[in-house]
Design a protein that fits this description.
By secondary structure, the protein is of the alpha/beta class. The chain is 40% helix and 16% strand. It contains 23 helices and 21 strands. Helix 5 links the parallel strand 4 and strand 5.
Length: 581
């Protein structure tokens, strides 16, 4: 046998590629730019390979937060972020993020290591039926059948995550694949998938929708986060201004059109919902956020015009007058064509507009009165009005908590699309710091200098507070505001807490909503090298926020003490369950 049949070891190595490198290259080919995760057996080499190929890797402190971050990248960029997790418990921790992404309709790829194939059913290290488990939380869940199949599976995962209604996808990687070597020529990388195809509504349905809207006595547009994801802001703005229609944003629909737009009726939300006779839904679902579209929140005979990319969503809970199935941006342009052919404008001096303006004026006055109160500790409205005064108009606001998110949404303004992230459709607590990290990483690449403001309740901060170390490690100049009322919904002050403990152990006497009074959360930030502030007065809040916004070199945490029993104003009840009419 000739010597040419025997390749030198170094030659063989040059012609071989590891599973980790195949995975990284397949992701790179699909234009994936960001990966979040926690490394360990068996996925460490995947993270290293991804970094070597130019994919940004962010090491988090909890897989749940990593998954939230990766999903936020999908929403902000339209291309899925990757969450990389170890097998078994690591993947299970990420399921919350997968479910959240699926409920929010955000693209996400989760790559999980799993036990070696040769040890299946033997009780292998962290063995778990991962592919099966993920099917409940994703659009697509699969394990490549071979090393050579990895690129095709990853391409399908990326494509599935962004086509149709976006969502989470899972790719399972057996431990023995990661370092296994195969001939480089045996691996064929699949070309980057095409952008999602743009579908349009039936022309006849668009004509009917335009006719229904023209005949409305009390019309309303509702702008959901689906419109933000679809980049439909230009078309919706034109429709609103050309036809002079009132609009109401959902929490993450805020900013598609600016909150200070003259046609925004957010301050009269309940009144607008309850008395509108024709409502156009742009990427907003009739779920709990919109009271299912049912009485008494809505008129029994209200006509819904439903614009959505997902056919299965059309007709949920209420039979719509018209359904427009298609890309929200494209369908908005179709509607505009109808109004260009036959111009129509809703009269600004109508009784409906007068009713909405009056309600907005009275609600805004009530909020301003609360914000102007000088008593200490501060209330929510005082805090948010002072924060709003200083926030840059182009900042990204991340918000989570109960009253903190609820009240903050009504006071803090958004002026740009895709600049608000919150608990979303799933009402998930714990998303805040992961979302903020993702937003800061994307902003650093795309809009250097753009600030990220993360507004947390003290309970919400506790879910992912150790991600402060992640923020400091990557030196992300996020400004964290912890609105601290010593509890979940409400808490006790120090004196009441000490008095309560006289009656027995805290496990027997402390109400379940209570947290430790006056906790110094700012010390967590200081411990990792950032700046921390403990504030109790409006002046201290103003000064600490001014300093935090002026310093673009370090993250900051402002721990804002408020009245433990603070809640919403009497005239304006909880937006989920009560009316502010």
């Amino acid at each position: 046998m000739s010597e040419s049949n025997f390749a030198a070891p170094s030659d063989r190595r040059d012609r071989e590629v590891s599973g980790a490198t195949i995975i990284a290259q397949a992701l790179k080919t699909q234009d994936v730019k960001y990966m979040f995760g926690i490394v360990g057996i068996p996925v460490t080499e995947i993270a290293i390979a991804a970094q070597q190929l130019g994919i940004r890797y962010v090491g988090m402190r909890n897989e749940q937060a990593a998954c939230y971050a990766a999903s936020a990248v999908g929403y902000l960029t339209g291309r899925p972020g990757v969450c990389l997790v170890v097998s078994g418990p690591g993947l299970i921790h990420a399921l919350g993020g997968m479910a959240n992404a699926n409920m929010n309709c955000w693209p996400l790829i989760v790559i999980g290591g799993s036990s070696e194939r040769s040890q299946e059913t033997m009780g292998a290290f962290q063995e778990f039926p991962q592919v099966e488990a993920c099917r409940l939380y994703s659009k697509f869940s699969a394990r490549p059948s071979s090393m050579e199949a990895i690129p095709a599976v990853i391409e399908k995962a990326v494509r599935s995550s962004i086509y149709g209604r976006p969502g989470a996808c899972y790719v399972d990687i057996p431990a023995d694949f990661v370092n296994l070597q195969v001939d480089v020529n045996s691996v064929k990388y699949v070309e980057c998938c095409m952008p999602p195809p743009v579908s349009m509504a039936e022309t006849s349905a668009v004509r009917v929708a335009a006719s229904v809207l023209r005949n409305a006595k009390q019309p309303l547009l509702i702008i959901g986060k689906g419109a933000a994801y679809a980049h439909a802001e230009e078309g919706i703005r034109t429709l609103v201004e050309q036809c002079q229609l009132p609009f109401l944003p959902t929490p993450m629909g805020k900013g598609v059109l600016p909150d200070n737009h003259p046609n925004c009726v957010g301050a009269a939300r309940s009144r607008a919902l309850q008395f509108a006779d024709v409502i156009v839904l742009f990427g907003a679902r009739l779920n709990w956020i919109l009271h299912f579209g049912l009485p008494p929140r809505f008129q029994p005979d209200v006509k819904f015009i439903q614009v959505d990319i997902c056919a299965e969503e059309l007709g949920n809970n209420v039979r719509p007058a018209v359904t427009l199935l298609g890309d929200i941006n494209a369908v908005t342009k179709q509607l505009l064509e109808q109004f260009d052919k036959t111009p129509w404008q809703y009269p600004l001096e109508s009784k409906w507009w007068k009713t909405l303006r009056e309600k907005m004026k009275s609600n805004e006055a009530a909020s301003k009165e609360l914000a102007s109160q000088k008593s200490l500790p501060m209330n929510y409205y005082t805090v948010f009005y002072h924060v709003q005064e200083q926030l840059p108009k182009d900042c990204i606001v991340v918000s989570e908590g109960a009253n903190t998110m609820d009240i903050g949404r009504t006071v803090m303004q958004n002026y740009l699309p895709r600049h608000r992230l919150d608990a979303g459709t799933f009402g998930t607590m714990g998303v805040g710091l992961g979302f903020a990290i993702a937003a800061a990483i994307v902003a650093k690449d795309r809009n250097p200098g753009k600030r990220v403001i993360c507004v947390e309740g003290d309970s919400a901060f506790g879910f992912s507070g150790m991600e402060v170390e992640t923020i400091c490690r990557y030196n992300l100049p996020i400004v964290l505001l912890v609105v601290n009322n010593n509890g979940i919904y409400q808490g006790f002050d120090s004196a009441a807490w000490k008095e309560m403990l006289k009656f027995g152990d805290a496990t027997a006497t402390s109400p379940p909503m209570c947290l430790l009074p006056n906790s110094h959360y700012e010390q967590v930030m200081i411990a990792f090298g950032g700046k921390g502030y403990f504030v109790q007065t409006p002046k201290e809040l103003q000064e600490s926020l001014r300093q935090s916004l002026a310093d673009t070199t370090k993250p900051s945490l402002i721990n804002i003490m408020i009245e433990p029993q603070a809640t919403r104003k009497v005239q304006d009840f909880h937006w989920l369950t009560r009316s502010n009419m």
